[in-house]
Every structure is written in structure tokens, then in C-alpha cells.
């Protein structure tokens, strides 16, 4: 072994971490384009590339592996790479999901204990309810309103079949709690169906993305058909926007509403009966009642604002009304809020998944 002196050749100079080119530090998919997800069917996503832009086109995408188990749902704004041409047989990849403004979850059930997101970025929940045949169920409406408010969405009540029953009672019940109400009736005519009140509905949807919900038979298909002609076929949905294929699964589909002043979408949710209310945050619900939210600032910390909540400022507010008329109005308002709050428990009846409250 040569005994030599230590010199600078013995010093190993390693490039610092910062100077090494690292893939992760490069902007990922800088060439990505933006798209709107309109439907999901067995791992394939119908998307609209450059929505409302000069190059708007329909395409099909799959989820990139890097997104892992993150769900992509109708209403999602996404970044896509790959073949985004939309040509026959083309397939792009969704590499990013934009931050969601709102999320609507469907209720967990026995077979699936998780409340899954079904729609993203909707502004409004449209609760389609028949005035008769089938009879309206206010408990179901309350649950939907609570879900909408909790998701920070507006609630719109579309009352159908006004030719069969008077809407006054339901209008009187929901209009005072900030729920916009539209009344329609469909009439058979030679050329198909005329839906009276359709223009009111279209105006209430204009410029927004609205999720339509309703039980079977309430006339939801009749409304969607009138708003977006040619959408439905007997065997399933052919998406006019995506243009291709048949959408027979029970997941939500976004449809563009023509004849409006600003881009307008309805998202139909076949088979969705109810929404996730297990984690309703009283503060979110309260946010939909600006006057009550202000009063509730004086509540004790952690106040649930429920009827049995001790020292709830809402009760003091009602009790301290200057006159009888004001007291009646305040009582109605607090009761409406509490009804929505209680609807997560199934309107007084214990929910199968939740213990009854004392
Ligand atoms: N009298 C009356 N009948 C209506 C009205 N709107 C729809 N209907 C009828 O109600 C029934 C149900 O209407 P649909 O539009 O199929 O209802 P849906 O909510 O889509 O129900 P599903 O198709 O079962 O999901 C049909 O027989 C319609 O003709 C209405 O305004 N007045």
C-alpha cells in the first residue's frame, strides 16, 4: 500500500440535491388541457374538452394511475393529457382534479357503508316533487334541503303535476326558508308534451349547474326531456353532449340546457334516492339562515341549536320578541331550521344507522 499524502482528489464532490434534475420538480403535465366530466360509466369518463371555449369537443378519458383511488364524478373540472382530440377511438388521461366548490354525497347504505361523492361543483339542488300521484313527502323534501344547505348549495323545489293538486300549502312551507319554488304541469298535446311553467324553471336554472333529484314517477324525466330535448331513450340515456354510446348505468349524467343566457347544466341522478346527512354540520345549515346565524353567535360554545340545546340563543331570541307578530315569525323561522337539523335523523324517527336521541 502506497503511503501518500491526502490531496484534493480524495475529496468526493457530490452534486447537491438541489442541482440534480428531478422529475418531480418539473411542472407536471404542463401541456394538460382542461375538461368537464359529464358522465362516468365503468371506468370510462365522458368529458367535454375546453368547455364553452373555442375548441370545445367531446372526448373519452380514463383515470391516470397517479390519481389512485380518488373518485372522479360528473361536474368535476379536470386536467387531461394524451389524445384529447375526441376522434373515434381516442382516449385521454385525467391527471388532475380541480378543487371542488361543492360536493354532494349520496347516503351510505347497507351494502356500502361509505357516503360517496356523486356530483361535484353543483350550485343548486332541484328537488322534483309531484303535488299528487305520488303524494308529496315533506320529510324527503326536508332531507334534500338539509343536504343542499350542508353542501352550501341552493335548494329549488320543482313542484310538478299542478293540474292534479294545489301547490299553495307546499309553497307556503318552503318559500319562507329560502327555497325557491317553481310549479309545473305537463299536458299531452298532438306534438308531444307541453310543460307549463317550463320557462320559469329554465330561468331558475340559467347560468347554474343544478342537480335534479326525485322519486320514481314524479315527472322528472318529463322535465329533463322538455329542458334538453332528445336526451332520453326507453332503454337508457343517450347523452347529447357526449354524443356517443348509451349510458345505462345508474350514475349521474350532466346535460347542457339549451336556450339559456349563460352556460347551464342539469345533472340527472337516476337511482339516487337520498343524500348523505350523517355528517351534517349545524354551522353549515345555519349559514343558509343569515338572521339566525347572527343570533347564534351568542350561543354557548358547541351549541347544537337543537330544540333541546341548553341556553341556545335562538330560544332567547324568540322569547325576547317585541310583539306577538314578530314572535310568531321568529318561532316559524327557528322551527323550520330545527326541522331541517332534525331531518338527518329521519324526522323524529330513529335512522337505522343512528341511535335515537333522548
Ligand atoms: N297529470 C300529470 N301527469 C304528469 C305530469 N308530469 C308527468 N306526468 C306523468 O307522470 C308519470 C311519470 O312521469 P315521468 O316523467 O316518467 O316521471 P319520472 O320521475 O321520470 O319517473 P321514472 O321514469 O319512474 O323515474 C308519466 O305517466 C307522466 O305522463 C304532470 O305535470 N301532470
UniProtKB/TrEMBL annotation:
A Pfam family: RsgA_GTPase
Record's subcellular location: Cytoplasm
SUPFAM superfamilies the record matches: P-loop containing nucleoside triphosphate hydrolases
Keywords: Cytoplasm, GTP-binding, Hydrolase, Nucleotide-binding, Ribosome biogenesis, RNA-binding, rRNA-binding
Region annotation (Disordered) ranges: 1-31
Record-listed E.C. numbers: 3.6.1.-
Domain CP-type G: 111-275
Compositional bias annotation for Basic and acidic residues: 1-13
Amino acid composition bias (Basic residues), ranges on this chain: 14-24
Domain EngC GTPase stretches: 120-273
Broad class of enzyme this protein falls into: hydrolase
Family matches, as CDD domains: YjeQ_EngC
Positions with a binding annotation for GTP: 160-163, 214-222
Keyword Glycoprotein in annotation: no
Entry similarity comment: Belongs to the TRAFAC class YlqF/YawG GTPase family. RsgA subfamily.
HAMAP family in the cross-refs: GTPase_RsgA
Subunit structure of this chain's protein: Monomer. Associates with 30S ribosomal subunit, binds 16S rRNA.
Role played: One of several proteins that assist in the late maturation steps of the functional core of the 30S ribosomal subunit. Helps release RbfA from mature subunits. May play a role in the assembly of ribosomal proteins into the subunit. Circularly permuted GTPase that catalyzes slow GTP hydrolysis, GTPase activity is stimulated by the 30S ribosomal subunit.
Protein name per Swiss-Prot or TrEMBL: Small ribosomal subunit biogenesis GTPase RsgA
Organism field: Cellulomonas fengjieae
